[in-house]
Amino acid sequence: MDYQQLIERLYQETKPLAAQGKVASYIPALAEVPASRFAISLITRKQEKFQTGDHQMPFSIQSISKVFTFILAYKNLGAAIWDRIGREPSGTAFNSLIQLEHEQGIPRNPFINAGAIVVADIILSICKNPKQTLLDFVRTLAGDQAITFDKQVALSEKTTGHRNYALAHFMKGFGNIINPVDEVLDLYFHQCALAMNADQLASSFLFLANEGTNPFDQQEVLNPSRAKRLKALMLTSGLYNESGDFAFRVGLPAKSGVGGGIVAVIPKQLSIAIWSPPLNAMGNSIAGIEALERFTTYSGQSIF
Ligand code: GLN
User: Fold this and answer.
1) Given 118, 240, 256, 285, which residue is catalytic?
2) DSSP states along 224-291
3) Protein residue with least CA distance to atom 2, ligand 1
4) Structural domains of the chain, ranges and CATH numbers in brackets
């Protein structure tokens, strides 16, 4: 398969579709990102790289970070994590409060905001220095020590994060947040503010194409069974209330963020990251989804 030729084709065909979306505007640091940015970065299990566009330009990974923090918590708690978080698709917006009332403060899955806030609470309980632990973990996964938090984004997340405060306090009312809300959200806002480029993102998910083992240092990140389960969660909940449509159109486990990034994995084969900031109504990158749909169509590869 000539992946370079394929991603160049995706670039040409799908970049113009970004014009149909809207760049996230809830904080200036995201609103100011040019809508025309576009990157595709693909890395195979054998570490062959295929890249095009703005693939070296860092952007705010936002909700993609929920995968990293979930791994840290899952490694530590194992199956006990399911006492505090569900594993069903939510069918509601990523920042919705509605289901939490019905379901007694237990979020539907780890990839909606409520679920990620519980995960942040778990990490706070198990780590002395949670932000540094997260940073070290992501750097190791990506095989790149240059990754950092964008402090300005983290601060803006805090000043505009009213719904996240509401979610956290609401869950604390149900006893599902143990640490002080401010400390939990400080970690959550920093994870959202991780700045990574498409190359680093593709590399950091490559372990999922390698049955749970980091191909850069041969360390097991998750055992094969847990890696399989994480991919199942990404397939069913990775794109919020668009996860079903994404599985239908693309057919890969993936995770998106409101910075316009989407990273997807073909088990045993490769990881691919796309970045295009304009979003659809569900908060997912319009051109990113389209590029991934054409990627699986043209290459004839998907998990189905
Ligand atoms: N910072 C955003 C929030 O908490 C992240 C959401 C996202 O990427 N969907 O609302």
Assistant:
1) 240
2) HHHHHHHHHHHHHHTTGGGHHHHHHHT-S-EEE-TTSEEEEEETTTEEEEEE---B-TTSSBHHHHHH
3) 62
4) 3-299 (3.40.710.10)
